[in-house]
Design brief:
heterodimer, A: alpha/beta, Rossmann fold, 2 domains, 6-stranded mixed sheet, B: mainly alpha, two-stranded antiparallel ribbon, 16 helices, 54% helix, disordered N terminus, P-loop_NTPase (chain A)
Chain lengths: 241, 453
């Protein structure tokens, strides 16, 4: 599983992103950056919601290297308020499915179970808490078993227990696929990420393993503190607060 | 693992996601049709279509009854209301269903949220539309089913699909409420601009919308096939357009080709396509029965008013015989249509139109039909040719026609002719004079034209 970014540049309003180049393989890649650094913009480019002005985004899965559409949790994920969760997942699942890879009722209930919402399958989306809605967003991104998953701040709005559970889910998902997660939380990075990509003002300022990032902060072990120190060291070296 | 998971969790939370061939039902297009129908505005739209069409069908005494071709052409009178309703609701549904699924729009356009909304509206709203036609046909079962009737209905359903596709296009581009308003206005404009018959070529949304009987005309299969093709191309173009969504270059190029082809087809067919949606059938009336010793033949589509018409016609014919004007009475009377003009020695025509709207047959209308020589050459002259030659019907002709009609009406009801505000009306013709004029009319030997200049 591989998501390749080659000299990717994009424009969103006045914001300029790139160039960004990275090879994101199986495992968890954390996308870090301050507010407005371009994390969500890059993720939109990764999944094709925003066209790249220059460069290329390639997604390959399996030995054949065939194209696979990434699963995507948008930062502002929302759904019709009065629609039962399972029905909405069925709707999104139909859009993601193909004749050779249909999305079944079992799969829908499987992803709901995976995010801990089996008992909410018939609940209207509008009656869910913010954290539950976020998990529905993760569930829809899992439909079709995509080779690459792009999750824009999946832990926002979750309580500590839910956040811990979701991290475990992300690690499990990343055993067989590339999972790209954007977050502000150093503890999320330390807990799940194999690699880190840091953006500052739309520019790529770091790409490496989590251990390499911690080393930038002068530490030899990976923890939330050392990751945070490494992050600050990188962005300050680039002259960005 | 997440603590709330109700069933016994598998060893890996993702284990449940593995494809399970042969177990469970796959999400089919039917599921999304049900989804949109259940959770969107579609049910109300379908109800609205039924109500609008029911209102249209009961207009003017439901004159289309018994004539399937006219019924199919009568229902689209409501398109001006149906179109904006369908487009506005589709835009709102698209904006709502697409808000969390914008990222799947970039995939195959025929399997996108917009496609799901379009399929659902085409099937459910189109079904409601077809249902009103079926109910209309069941009220008075048609005696004749045009072989291209299905194509005419298909074209009308594709018009609903186009209204929906326009709605989904705007629903993807702007906020829900604004999209609903813009879609309704856009489709209203589209209906205004492209629903009228054009002199040459195919009009995209021309669906008849007619208050005139269709007897004597049938659907032109070529015109309708081209129209259906254009509509399908335009629907595809609307679904293909996905502003702001990234696609591979070759896919984007193919999509541009689809949009350009659809646009070109509409322009070319609008200029060079078949001209007429309806073709002349030249069918002759086959429902024949004797009335006052005269064989009267009417179209079976008008069977429901035939009794009344024949009864009143009997009064008119008997009046002529009784008062010594037997020469006016033809041997045979046939109903005229848009493509059949009966006439000639011994045969006269009647026209049935107001009677279909529930009005009683008028003596004046019947008598005018019996005497007016519309089977003669001047009535066959194309309008343009007549204008070039300067030929027009003479004042003498109109005076003789008035006298003949007035005379016959006076035979039926002597008070009717002198009822006009002190105007005694045209002088009545003696039996011999009436017979002479009538004979000239029937044999087309009358000098109808005033001549050039």
């Amino acid at each position: 599983m591989m998501l390749s970014l080659r000299e990717v540049e994009a424009t969103a309003g006045r914001f300029q992103l790139g160039p960004v180049s990275a090879e994101l393989g199986t495992g968890v890649t954390a996308l870090l950056g301050a507010n407005g650094a371009g994390k969500s913009t890059l993720m939109k480019v990764m999944v094709g919601v925003l066209p790249a002005r220059r460069g290329s985004v390639t997604v390959r899965s399996g030995a054949s290297g065939e194209y696979s559409r990434p699963g995507y949790l948008p930062q502002d994920f929302d759904a019709p308020r009065n629609t039962p969760v399972a029905d909405y997942l069925g709707f999104v699942g139909w859009c993601r499915a193909s004749r050779s890879r249909p999305v079944t009722d079992e799969e829908i209930h499987g992803v709901l179970g995976a995010v801990g919402l089996s008992d909410r399958a018939r609940s209207p989306f509008g009656r869910l808490s913010g954290g539950m809605r976020r998990r529905v967003g993760v569930a829809q991104a899992m439909l079709g078993a995509p080779a690459v998953m792009v999750l824009d701040e999946p832990t926002v709005g979750l309580d500590p227990v839910q956040r811990s559970d979701l991290r475990a889910l992300v690690v499990d998902l990343a055993r067989e696929r590339a999972v790209i997660v954007s977050t502000h939380l150093a503890e999320d990075v330390a807990a799940v990420a194999d690699r880190v990509l840091i953006l500052a003002d739309g520019r790529q300022v770091f790409a490496g393993t989590t251990a390499e990032l911690a080393a930038r902060g002068g530490a030899s072990t990976v923890s939330s503190e050392t990751v945070e120190r490494g992050f600050l060291a990188v962005v300050r070296a680039e002259g960005t607060p | 693992m997440i603590a709330e998971a109700a069933p016994a969790p598998p060893s890996s939370p993702y284990a449940g996601l593995a494809p399970a061939p042969g177990t469970g039902s796959a999400r089919s297009w039917w599921h999304v049709v049900r989804f949109v129908a259940r959770h969107g505005l579609l049910r109300w739209v379908a109800l609205g279509i039924c109500l609008i069409n029911a209102g249209v069908l009961t207009m003017r005494g439901a004159p289309w009854r018994g004539d399937l071709t006219w019924l199919i052409d009568f229902v689209p009178i409501g398109l001006l209301a149906v179109g904006p309703v369908v487009a506005g609701a589709a835009a709102l549904d698209m904006a709502r269903f697409g808000e969390g699924a914008r990222h799947v729009e970039g995939m195959r356009f025929w399997r996108s949220p917009a496609a799901a909304v379009t399929y659902a509206y085409t099937i459910v709203a189109g079904g409601a539309y077809v249902l009103t036609i079926v109910v209309g046909a069941a009220v008075v079962p048609p005696v004749h089913v045009d072989r291209f009737a299905w194509l005419a209905v298909l074209a009308q359903v594709l018009m609903l699909a186009l209204f929906t596709a326009v709605g989904t296009l705007l629903g993807r581009a702007v906020s829900a409420v604004l999209a609903g308003i813009l879609a309704a206005v856009a489709v209203l404009a589209l209906v205004f601009l492209t629903s009228s018959r054009v002199e040459s070529g195919v009009a995209l949304l021309y669906a008849g919308g007619s208050l005139v009987p269709r007897v004597g005309r049938g659907f032109d299969g070529g015109y309708l096939a081209v129209q259906a093709l254009l509509l399908a191309a335009m629907v595809t173009a609307c679904l293909v357009i996905r502003p702001g969504i990234a696609r591979a270059g070759r896919i984007r190029a193919a999509e541009c080709a689809v949009v350009l082809t659809a646009g070109s087809l509409v322009v070319v067919a609008g200029q060079a396509g078949p001209d007429d949606r309806l073709a002349r059938t030249n069918a002759r009336p086959t429902d024949c029965a004797p009335v006052a010793g005269v064989t009267v033949c009417m179209f079976p589509e008008h069977r429901r008013v035939a009794g009344e018409v024949r009864r009143e016609l009997g009064v008119v014919l008997e009046a002529a015989r009784t008062h010594g004007y037997a020469a006016l009475v033809p041997a045979r009377v046939e109903e005229a249509s848009a493509s059949y003009s009966p006439g000639g020695p011994g045969t006269a025509a009647i026209r049935v139109e107001a009677e279909l709207e529930g009005q009683a047959p008028s003596d004046e209308g019947l008598v005018l039909g019996l005497v007016e020589p519309t089977h003669c050459t001047p009535w066959d002259l194309p309008v343009a040719e007549a204008a070039v030659s300067g030929a027009e019907l003479s004042e003498e002709y109109f005076a003789d026609l008035d006298r003949l009609v007035g005379t016959w009406l006076a035979l039926v009801d002597p008070d009717a002719v002198v009822a006009g505000a002190g105007d005694p009306g045209p002088p009545l013709l003696a039996p011999q004079e009436a017979a002479r004029v009538m004979e000239q009319f029937r044999t087309c030997t009358y000098d109808f034209l005033a001549g050039p200049g």
